[in-house]
Design a protein that fits this description.
This protein is of the alpha+beta class. It has three helices and 16 strands. A three-stranded antiparallel β-sheet has the order 8-7-9, sandwiched between helices. A hairpin with a 4-residue loop joins strand 7 and strand 8. Helix 2 packs antiparallel against helix 3. The termini are far apart. This is Complement component 6.
Length: 199
């Protein structure tokens, strides 16, 4: 089996299509196949499901970009590593399929914001590899999409005092605050909770 896995064929011009990756190698290792009786990142051991050891995923190709919330950095991981880490309770937040793009600061900042606010969300809905929160819906194509601020409730358990412009502060729900962040609306969170009457 070639690693990284993929299909390569000899084209009409006698070149490989797609071009062979520099690190291509052959291996006799069996690919990670999730156990159908257990959850993602688990395997059957005897009669019970246990988390897959992280080390058992090292030979798998890195196919996802995730935010490691402990070190606050985007890192590439394999699907096996992602599910194993989640099973072990590691704080990984899905960003995208494919390679991490260090130049995409906006995507990284959004992932950091989602990670920071995720514990305050009353909704944590699985959506393919991602998890959607209060301010998101899971689309038909299984991607978390931001709600518009007008779709968010006006009051909620988690309120924030947000400075929108030099002269305007407003009390916003977690959903509304995240919806503004999602569309790159500039604002500053002054503090958690309602704005005081004197603001």
């Amino acid at each position: 089996m070639p690693l990284p896995r993929g299909m390569y064929r000899c084209g009409a011009k006698l070149t490989w299509e797609p071009p062979l990756p520099a690190g291509l190698r052959c291996t006799n290792e069996n690919p990670f196949v999730p156990d159908s009786q257990c959850g993602l990142g688990q395997r059957l051991q005897g009669s019970r499901c246990v988390c897959v050891q992280r080390e058992s995923c090292l030979s798998e190709p890195e196919s996802l970009c995730v935010l490691n919330a402990i070190i606050d950095v985007a890192v590439p991981v394999s699907l096996c590593s992602f599910h194993a880490a989640r099973c072990h309770g590691d704080p990984l937040l899905y960003m995208n399929e494919g390679a991490c793009n260090p130049a995409d600061i906006t995507k990284l900042e959004w992932a950091r914001f989602r990670a920071k606010m995720s514990s305050k969300s009353s909704a944590q809905l699985p959506c393919n590899l991602d998890t959607c929160y209060d301010w998101e819906t899971c689309s038909a194509s299984k991607k978390c999409q931001c709600k518009a601020a007008r779709e968010c409730p006006r009051t909620g358990e988690h309120m924030f005092c947000v400075k929108l412009t030099a002269q305007m502060t407003r009390s916003l729900t977690l959903c509304s605050t995240a919806a503004l962040k999602c569309i790159n609306q500039p604002f500053e969170i002054l503090h958690e909770g309602d704005c005081s009457a004197g603001s």
